[in-house]
Amino acid sequence: MIRTIGFRLNETDYRISVREEALALDWIRNEAGLKGTKEGCREGDCGACLVLLGGPIQGDQAPEGLSAKSAVEWRSVTSCTLAMGELDGRHVVTIEGLASAGLTPVMEAMLDEGASQCGFCSPGFVLALTGYLVSGARVDPVEAMVAVEGNLCRCTGYGSIRRAAARLAGEFSDLPSGLPERLAILAERRVLPAGLAAAMAVPIAPSGEKGSGEAVARLVIGGGTDYFVRNPDPDPSLAPSFSDKGPRARSIRESSAGGRSAVVLGAAVNATDFFSSPVVREAAPGVERFELDVASPPIRNRATLAGNIVNASPIADMTAMLIALGAELRLSGAAASRTVALEDFFVGYKKTVLAPGEVVESISFPGGWSSFAFEKASKRERLDIATVNCAVAVRMSPDGTIAEARYSAGGVAATPLRLRDAEAAMIGRKPSAALARELGTIAAGAGSPMSDVRGSSTYRKRLLERLAWAACCRLWPELRLEEELLA
Ligand SMILES: Cc1cc2nc3c(=O)[nH]c(=O)nc-3n(C[C@H](O)[C@H](O)[C@H](O)COP(=O)(O)OP(=O)(O)OC[C@H]3O[C@@H](n4cnc5c(N)ncnc54)[C@H](O)[C@@H]3O)c2cc1C
Ligand code: FES
Ligand code: FES
What percent of the chain clears pLDDT 70, i.e. is strictly above it? Predict the structure, then answer.
């Protein structure tokens, strides 16, 4: 679908008619002619196409003292999973924008440490590290390496990249937290060209125009990190609507309707928003420990919870977490809105109860959990989809027994599962190694895991047993259950 959009690319403002569903990567390389944004995997996996995406902070995420309209946020994203329509009212920074005034300290660190050899991956690494300095995250060598977890390099072996990241972390450990101040300092210290830094502080207005042309297929796109991987050359007759455009789409708020407090998440809340939210962290203590188990920073920056759910993969990590937290979905469409428990949303492999035209409007889950654990086994430690996963949330009674429990498992059946037997086994019990073993036996007997390249059915059952043990160790670390379980 053709639409006029208004956006900024580096220091230039554009107002152009584009195919909304076309990929930003293709436009940047072929129309804008900026070939420094590389095409590697075209699947969000390698980071060669990384750009920085800036835009007004939406919903209730604006920092104190700033309205959502005047506050800008910057995140690294993969342009091979980003639709052109998403750029309306946003600002994209590519490697050419960073390099317009010569080498920056990030580029110098990469060169001095031998972190660039063939150079194909280097723009992506430079963007990821620059985005990290812009983001306001705590600057230290460990976090700097987390920032490049979505970038692959076939030449260097990463030791030199680690040295470059550590050097930058040392040089820039004193950045202020407010974005305008940080941008000014990054300009003064040549990380950003001065003109670019000034432009990055100012939001750009969206065109607000509607699309034209004959739409054949209508589709909601969240972050696009599932959709564009499956459809790398999207259908031009598609009329996409972007789930993050509504005013509350990315809001995370508390509600006390019905007596128990609940967390209500807009459909476009992404994984980064979720794990960094104080509201979520308070409702599900310990949830933030599992952020790095899900994808990479540029994917988390876009991957919405609703997209994870509607994609209906039996091993979706956010879905497993949300089932354990007791999530419900608010669906809206042509008929009246309705609420569905998340575990009842799935009716078969990649099949859901969504009616044609129906969308996920919001996701809510009760607060007041005492502890939360998520476990995932995959072939690679990071940046891999799960062979199996499980999540457990518990609410403890003052006498130390378990008052409420929710247990989910993925990779066990055609759909993500809620393990009610495991939950029943926990209620009224005190945590112990014996309970962990019992849960392991229940989890190993759940569903009917298939055998495939990721593991045989028997192996998956064994993993599910051990993930139950691991979850118990994580839920109650003070009991040191591992000493008895592994004796
Ligand atoms: C490199 C890489 C690594 C990944 N790693 C992981 C991982 O570790 N764990 C994991 O679980 N997933 C992973 N994923 C998968 C993906 O990132 C997640 O499933 C993500 O949450 C999908 O969200 P999205 O917003 O990008 O979905 P999209 O691609 O935008 O949409 C997915 C589907 O949901 C539909 N949809 C989206 N929003 C709505 C809505 N509001 N209402 C109705 N339908 C809607 C779309 O129409 C589409 O059919 C990875 C993906 C990539 C590319
Ligand atoms: S081309 Fe590999 S992440 Fe985009
Ligand atoms: S330097 Fe060649 S891929 Fe990284």
Answer: 96
Going by alpha carbons, the residue nearest to atom 4 of ligand 3 is: 153
Question: Do residues 25 and 82 lie in contact, with contact meaning Cβ atoms separated by under 8 Å?
Answer: yes
| CATH code, residues 252-485 | 3.30.465.10
**451 burial via Cβ count (<10 Å: 0-12, 13-18, 19+):** exposed
- 160 C-beta closer than 6 A to ligand 3: no
Percent of the chain whose predicted confidence (pLDDT) is above 90: 81
Tell me the fold of 2-200: Ubiquitin-like (UB roll) (3.10.20)
> What's the pLDDT score for residue 216?
59
Question: How many whole angstroms separate alpha carbon 136 and alpha carbon 142?
Answer: 15
Model pLDDT, residue 63: 47
User: Does the beta carbon of 110 sit less than 6 angstroms from any atom of ligand 1?
Assistant: no
| Pairwise CA distance, residues 232 & 80, whole Å | 8
Ligand 2 contact via 80 beta carbon (within 6 Å): yes
d(CA 454, CA 449): 11
Q: Kindly report, residue by residue over 429-448, the tens digit of the pLDDT.
A: 999 999 999 999 999 999 88
pLDDT reading at 384 higher than 90: no
What does the pLDDT look like over 312-343, one tens digit per residue? 999 999 999 999 999 999 999 878 899 999 99
* Residue 397 clears pLDDT 60, i.e. is over it: yes
224 Cβ closer than 6 Å to some ligand 2 atom: no
Q: List the chain domain ranges.
A: 2-200, 252-485
Q: Is it true that 2-200 and 252-485 share their CATH fold?
A: no
Ligand 3 lined by 118 (C-beta under 6 Å)? yes
By C-alpha distance, which of 72, 64, 81, 70 is closest to 21?
Answer: 81
Q: Choose the residue to mutate in 23, 28, 37, 45 for probing ligand 2, maximizing ligand atoms within 8 Å of C-beta.
A: 45
> Angle at CA 284, nearest 5°, toward 280 and 287?
85
What does pTM read for this prediction? 0.96
